Amino acid sequence: MTADVTPDLAEAIQRGYDQRDRANMAPTIAYFQALLAEQPDHPVLVYEVGGAYDSAGLEETARGYYERALALGLDGDTLRRCLCQYASTLRWLGELETSLVVLDRARKEFPNSDSVRVFRALTLNEAQRSDEAVAELLTVVTGHAKATDLGRWAVGLRGLAQWLAEGRPE
What we know:
The chain is mostly helical. 72% of the residues lie in helices and 0% in strands.
């Protein structure tokens, strides 16, 4: 179970995001490290430190924080975000099969999550499994057909997504 995120802690985390400069992540990393020093086993803070390292392009360091945060216990939306970011980090590190294992867990726990599907599509594409990647993305897009101009094509595109995901059966 995720440690409680009090309103004060949620505000402190938001301040870290508000001050973030993706071109210079060192201050953000230091900020989240300082928060973590106050509560060293808080899984959400461990996750946030990992995310800061990830945004800085320090994937190997981020990986350790994500793994620790997961071991400490996350749930709900924070768990979903951590699984997506961890899987993305694994993809960047070239560990595509492990990334897919993480994303399959995420898909099982969050079956309606578009973000899980998009991150899974990225890993599938990197793994040269383009049909499955396109199927994932078509599933996301057709799930929002009313917000697009797909209209009557949405049903057919969902069928195409299924056909691609199943390996183009005869």
